[in-house]
Design goal:
Elements: H1 5-31, H2 54-74, H3 81-96, E1 102-104, H4 106-117, E2 119-122, E3 125-130, E4 133-139, H5 144-147, E5 155-159, E6 162-163, H6 169-176, E7 183-189, E8 197-202, E9 204-207, E10 211-217, E11 220-225, H7 232-245, E12 251-255, H8 264-274, E13 278-284, E14 290-296, E15 305-309, H9 316-326, E16 331-334, E17 342-348, E18 354-363, E19 379-380, H10 385-389, H11 405-416, H12 429-441, H13 452-468, H14 471-480, H15 485-489
Parallel strand pairs: 11-12, 12-15, 15-16, 16-19
Antiparallel strand pairs: 1-18, 2-9, 3-4, 4-5, 5-6, 5-7, 7-8, 10-11, 13-14, 13-18, 17-18
Length: 493
């Protein structure tokens, strides 16, 4: 396989850079000590570092070059050099062992930037893959998909005539997204419909909303942050200030459950509204030096704040929750968080590629290292797994004699909405009877078998139960109603 001289120069320069990066990162993980949670982070620490010589780096590059030349010269099947180089990069990342380091080829980089940007050209749906089917998990409000009549639970069979079943999420995303003012023909199988439904949907620029809010009662606000992209702080600020303008006096519940994180600067900007004057977070580099400390200059709120967290609250959401807890600005309710306090930075490489590197860790104002430990809530309150995950339940038809995890989840869902049933993993007569009773109450045919129409009604029942039986939210409401909550937050009780 012939390559131009110019391309060869770029390739070997890229290899050299990746070896250099990989070597330095390996040194960091092997020789750099872990920051002590109680250490004084402002004091200099002596670090023993291993610096490779130029001769050693050249030797490493030579080995990689020899391997690629051997494959190109002697391997029976032709292999593109680009594939070999990308494989070498992925191998470096795998050997480092950091799950948050990623290499992006041009296509992956474009998708990643789209995620952090918070907008994309598409139809406005969130999809999941269930048993090889592409299923609409959610349609965004006022989106092209909603206007075209697409609904949660619809199985997308084809997009522009291309079969999607068994092709994976990435293929579905590739076909459904596209430039604004273009169209895509979508063929779906709808629960209860005998024949597939075909609709033409016009794509437009979709702004992903990450913040939602409502007043639960006069003076009591509730804000949900789903993730932190480039629009999140602006969305929060607009809705929060509107709440304060309308009389936010009894308290604020901030829901960070199932929030995987995102852009740290967005979490910091939100913290500047809620954390009283002082430190929000500090970023610590590889030499245990404090690279950046972020501060708030806000006045302490005259009302109590309760933050909801769980096992899937991670990264930037932990930063925000940790700052509020450490600065005695809020009480945390729920379960211990995920435990990710590393900071990643995108480094652009040649040929429109990039690598996402871990460049720092963040510590809460008290110096607490939450990485792999998480943040413990002030009040540990459980939440039913069924109420957390029922929207991912999209099985095929279930009937007496069926067995397995899907049957178990169906039984748990029926139990959650009030039916007395034994959890056995087996679709027995008591399961069929409970399901038949539910179907009759929902106005369906009492077949005692689980089908698509039953799924629609069961999901609606669980949507209602997820609000009424949200024990963590209910506990937060109970806390805010207590006259002495301010004393608890300030640490006097």
């Amino acid at each position: 396989m012939e390559l131009t001289a110019k391309k060869n120069i770029f390739k070997w320069l890229a290899i050299f850079l990746f070896v250099l990066i990989g070597t330095n990162l390996a040194n960091y993980y092997i020789f750099n000590s872990k920051v002590n949670q109680t250490a004084d982070l402002d004091k200099p620490t002596t670090i023993i570092k291993y610096e490779p010589t130029q001769q050693m780096l050249e030797s490493d590059v030579a080995i990689i070059r020899e391997a690629i030349d051997s494959i190109n010269d002697y391997y029976y099947y032709p292999v593109e050099t680009d594939i070999l180089i990308e494989g070498a990069i992925q191998g470096m990342i795998a050997n480092i062992g950091d799950p948050y380091i990623r290499y992006f080829n041009p296509e992956d980089l474009e998708e990643f930037m789209m995620e952090t940007r918070g907008s994309y050209g598409g139809i406005g749906v969130r999809i999941i893959e269930v048993n090889d089917y592409i299923v609409i998990f959610e349609t965004f409000s006022e989106s092209p998909a909603e206007r075209a009549g697409l609904s949660p639970g619809d199985r997308i069979i084809q997009a522009d005539g291309n079969e999607l079943t068994g092709m994976g999420i990435s293929r579905a995303v590739e076909l459904l997204r596209g430039p604004s003012n273009t169209t895509v023909d979508v063929l779906t199988k709808r629960p209860g419909a005998d024949e597939p439904i075909k609709v033409t949907v016009e794509r437009e620029e979709i702004e992903v909303t990450t913040v939602s809010s409502e007043m639960l009662e006069d003076g009591l606000g509730y804000i949900v942050i789903n993730s932190f992209d480039s629009h999140t702080a602006a969305e929060f600020t607009e809705q929060f200030l509107e709440m304060e303008k309308n009389g936010l006096s009894k308290g604020l519940i901030l829901d960070l459950r199932n929030n995987p994180g995102g852009l740290i600067d967005q979490a910091v900007e939100i913290a500047k509204h809620l954390v009283p004057e002082g430190e929000i977070v500090r970023l610590v580099g590889r030499d245990n030096d404090v690279k950046t400390t972020y501060y708030s200059y806000a006045v302490k709120k005259p009302y109590p704040i309760v933050v909801l967290i769980n096992e899937d609250s991670a990264s930037a959401s932990e930063l925000l929750a940790g700052a509020l807890q450490d600065r005695n600005a809020a009480l945390l309710v729920g379960k211990t968080t995920y435990g990710k306090a590393s900071v990643q930075q995108l480094e652009y490489l040649s040929e429109d590629s990039a690598i996402l590197l871990t460049v720092a860790k963040y510590f809460t104002p008290s110096g607490h290292d939450i990485d792999k430990n998480g943040i413990e809530p002030d009040f540990e309150i459980d939440m039913s797994d069924i109420l957390r995950y029922y929207r991912y339940f999209h099985p095929d038809r279930l009937e007496p004699g069926s067995y397995g995890p899907e049957v178990k989840m169906l039984q748990q869902m029926l139990e959650q909405i009030g039916y007395t049933i034994e959890i056995t993993d087996y679709f027995d007569m008591q399961t069929s009877l409970a399901l038949s009773t539910f179907q009759a109450a929902a106005g369906l045919n009492s077949s005692g078998e689980f089908d698509d129409l039953t799924w629609v009604e069961l999901r609606e029942a669980l949507d209602k139960a997820s609000v009424e039986q949200d024990e963590q939210l209910n506990y937060a409401l109970e806390l805010i109603s207590k006259p002495g909550l301010f004393k608890v937050i300030e640490g006097s009780n």
